[in-house]
Amino acid sequence: ERPGRPLGRAAVLDAVRAALIAAGAPGDCEIELPNFTSPNVPLDADTAPVVTQLQYDSTSGRFAGMLSVTAAGLEPINTRITGNTEAILELPVASTPLATGTVLRDGDVHIARIRAALVRADVARTLEQAVGKQLRHQVPAGQPLKRADLMPPELILKGQPVQMLLESAGLLLIGQGQAMDSAGAGARVRVLNPVSRAVLEGTVVGPGRVRIDPDSRPVSPAGGRDGIAGQMAIR
Q: Within 13 Å, how many C-alpha atoms sit on residue 185's CB side?
């Protein structure tokens, strides 16, 4: 008998990972060894653990094999091991709890390693897909960002006064209206002409600015004059 110590878990995982990679597993996979107890080795031994007889199922991620620990003057110590692997994704996640309507900045999100099994929706894969977007719903800290919850920032809010722009035959007509929807850049939005009470559709081209198509027809009947006539100024 001589003083001993448990074989370090890090050394065991390194040996298992090397064998799994050789069997075709992803190099950055998460390795789980449930109910595994490290074998005792001599206190001063320079051990060299290896995994042999590995059986690996790439579909389920389960594996089994034999952990062999050798050292100078030491009979090989063989221990049966079983476990499973899980794929890991590097995804943008919320750095802090984020409220509905937040326009994401660099400090609001960071890249984190997430188990693939925990990702149950189409989520942003890069910071570029998230930063600059606005949240439709609140997101807890550490949570990946669903792409369905990301939208272009709203440049127009419902009920906000807006400029209606109409370009035709070299003329630029500018009138005042009221947004009936909230919308971001490039989105379609309804605008109420407060004079004619006509509702027109246009495209958001900037903060508080909506471009009306020259051949646009009122979405709802005008209570007075047609379209945006009477409320436009020629520029």
A: 8
What per-residue confidence (pLDDT) applies to 221? 56
Q: What is the pLDDT of residue 1?
A: 62
Alpha-carbon distance values, 13 to 22, 55, 85, 134, 175 (Å): 14, 16, 11, 41, 69
Lowest mean pLDDT among 10-24, 133-147, 189-203: 189-203
SS3 per-residue string spanning the chain: CCCEEECCHHHHHHHHHHHHHHCCCCCCCEEECCCCCCCEEECCCCCEEEEEEEEECCCCCEEEEEEEEEECCEEEEEEEEEEEEECEEEEEEECCCECCCCECCHHHEEEEEEEHHHCCCCECCCHHHCCCCEECCCECCCCECEHHHEECCEEECCCCEEEEEEEECCEEEEEEEEECCCEECCCEEEEECCCCCCEEEEEEEECCEEEECCCCCCCECCCCCCCCCCCEEEC
Per-residue pLDDT averaged across 173-187, rounded?
89
Does the predicted TM-score (pTM) go above 0.85? no
User: Which tens digits make up the pLDDT trace of 80-93?
Assistant: 999 999 988 999 99
Query: What is the model's pLDDT at position 229?
Result: 44
Q: Which two tokens stand for residue 46?
A: 């320079």
Backbone angles phi, psi at 95, to 5 degrees: -75, -30
